[in-house]
Amino acid sequence: MMTSSTNSVAAASMAVNASRARRSVLNRKLVLTLVAWTIALMMFFPIFWMFLTSFKTEAEAISTPPSLFFTPSIDGYIEIQARADYFKYALNSVVISLGATLLALLIAIPSAYSMAFLPTKRTQTTLLWMLSTKMLPSVGVLLPVYLIFRDLGLLDSRTGLIIIYMLMNLPIVVWMLYTFFKDIPKDILEAGRMDGASTLQEIFHLLLPLTLPGIASTGLLCVILSWNEAFWSLNLTTSNAAPLTAYIASFSSPEGLFWAKLSAASTLAVAPILIFGWMTQKQMVRGLTFGAVK
Amino acid sequence: MTTTLNESVPTDTPSARTRKRGTKVRRQRVRAAWTYLAPMLVALALVAGWPLLRTFYLSLTDASLSDTTGAAFIGFENYLVKDDGVWYGLLADPVWWNSVWNTVYFSVISVSLEVVFGIIVALLLNAEFKGRMLVRAAVLIPWAIPTIVSAKMWAWMLNDQFGIINHMLMGLGLIDAPLAWTADADLSMWAVIMVDVWKTIPFVALLVLAALQMLPKDCYEAAEVDGIHPVKVFFRVTLPLITPALLVAVIFRLLDALRVFDVIYVLTSNSSSTMTMSIYARQQLVEFQDVGYGSAASTMLFLIIALAVVVYLYLGRRQLGVDK
Fold first, then answer.
1. What would the pLDDT profile of A145-170 be if each residue is shown by its tens digit?
2. Taking CB atoms and an 8 Å cut-off, how many pairs form between chains A and B?
3. B79-86 contacts: CB < 8 A, separation 24 or more?
4. For A10, which of B144, B225, B269 is closest by C-beta distance?
5. B266 CB within 8 Å of a chain A CB
6. B309 assigned to some structural domain
7. Is A274 a member of any domain?
8. Domain range spanning residue A150?
9. What's the total number of domains in chain A?
10. Which residue in chain A has the smallest CA separation from B39?
């Protein structure tokens, strides 16, 4: 109603100031573009600098002033593989984050289905309780988890980390799947049930195909969160099952002389996420915001 | 509202039939609902409930990492005890109080900065300009990469002798001599905050952006036509409308900030000027192997976070109540 009453005024005032307005809009747009690009560059700079440093030799890396132009060398990359068997850590990261994601989806899909399509009086409470486990400080449960893992022989094993990452991500995975499932009209599933589909058939043949994009973005988020996790990998692994985050953390500060190697290792650790994330950016943004905003 | 499925659907044949056998069907449905929920509930109880109780129990003992079974029950002595007229225990430990103060300081400052910058970035990304998708991708990157990596990268850039930051600041004439960002007691907290803000702006910006894209466009057209200053429009129209999304973003960030660990662990490790409650508890548990005392520190951290959440939810609900 506000628009209709102001439209005529708009037309009049706009006609008067047409050219001035157009110029100021253009100026504003230019400023906006510049500011946006500046911020993007500032946000991106550390990654760029890491990338650059990874192609320097150790001597070049610590040259003053820091050099922007240099002869690129891949010594850093060769050395991290030779010195510490980089691919073992990379493989651990892949296995652990994919394993944790699949396991989390396997447990979360029935739960989210139950919450979305068979709501009971306690569904809301369950959802809230589930989310409240997100506020648990990891350090608060570190020792009991450590002791269980020691007794079960899970310390420094991929299985152990898969389990812990799955548990860590479970609340957010269930929550996101719940928001996706909730949007599916109940009638569709009911029609399937009328036709004699069992619950499992309902889930596999109706629900999953319909919500595949949502499930994909949930899984993606779970992979990234697992890939990036460091607290548990630092405290529960030593070498066998250590993923890339633990490996990178092991470059401790007294080793300040190895910045080029550290950068090379970091670049390799980040690259899959960036490539993967770039390709699925839209899905990721959707998933993340759907999970959090209502 | 279309999906809040209720039994009071208009009477077409199937639902009328359902109602006749209402109780039996409902009982079956409730049973099915809990069956599907069971794996998740058991898993969460295992990770959240049981270890937490065990941590609390350990905090009442004098256990050490080498001997957790033969520990003696000592009540609340890890928390506070008076011996010969002197108070001992966690609550009498100035180092712990320092870590509480650091945690609160870090959380308040970094979350505030993240919200302000997050809104600015979201407003920019919501506008039309050349290369918007590329900028959006670039802005997202800090969030997507591991904290360990970004913290290491910043440690390298903030290095007092060889770091690019000192070099750039000196080149611009802003400082005369290199600053020891991560070693200087006055600077290190700000270095940590800066890295955390850099990393988390994308998250807040995304949540705000999602809210911005749902806003009704005609309000803005009307405001523009009436010649109302954009800043005024922002505070009068935009901000109230995105408040619910902001509240969600703030609670997520606050929970993460209160238990911050990895960025500080990498940048300054156990330095006292940036020691937070998580770092303190881990040091007691893992490095000093004092399980009882460390568990007490963990329990206190959990209680403080729970308290913060309760207060926040209470205030947040009141705030939202005004809107409705």
1. 888 888 899 889 999 999 999 988 88
2. 292
3. B79/B296, B79/B300
4. B225
5. yes
6. yes
7. yes
8. 84-288
9. 2
10. A107
> How many domains does one find in chain B?
2
- Residues A12, A119, single domain; the answer is no
With contacts defined as CB-CB under 8 Å, which chain A residues touch B294? 143
Residue-wise pLDDT for A252-294, tens only, equals: 655 556 788 888 888 988 888 888 777 777 666 666 665 444 3
pTM attached to this predicted model:
0.81
Please determine, for residue B255, whether its predicted confidence score (pLDDT) is greater than 90.
Answer: no
pLDDT at A226: 92
Helices A158-182 and A138-152 meet at what angle, rounded to 10? 130
In sequence order, what are the beta bridge partners of B87?
Answer: B82
Torsion of CA A49, A54, A59, A61, to 10 degrees: 10
Question: Which amino acid would we find at residue B109?
Answer: I
CB of B269 less than 8 A from some CB of A: yes
The CATH number of whichever domain residue A271 belongs to comes to 1.10.3720.10
**Residue A167 domain flag:** yes
**DSSP helix/strand/coil, B12:** coil
> Is B304 an interface residue toward A (CB < 8 Å)?
no
Q: Which domain holds residue B180?
A: 96-320
**Is residue B39 domain-shared with residue B109, that is, in the same domain?**
no
Alpha helix (H) ranges present in chain A? Answer: 2-16, 18-54, 58-61, 75-84, 86-117, 123-132, 138-152, 158-182, 186-194, 199-201, 208-210, 212-228, 231-236, 244-249, 259-279, 281-292
Max distance between CA atoms of chain B, in angstroms, equals 84
Cβ of A162 under 8 Å from any chain B Cβ? no
From chain A residues 187-226, the ones with a CB under 8 A of any chain B CB are 190, 194, 199, 224
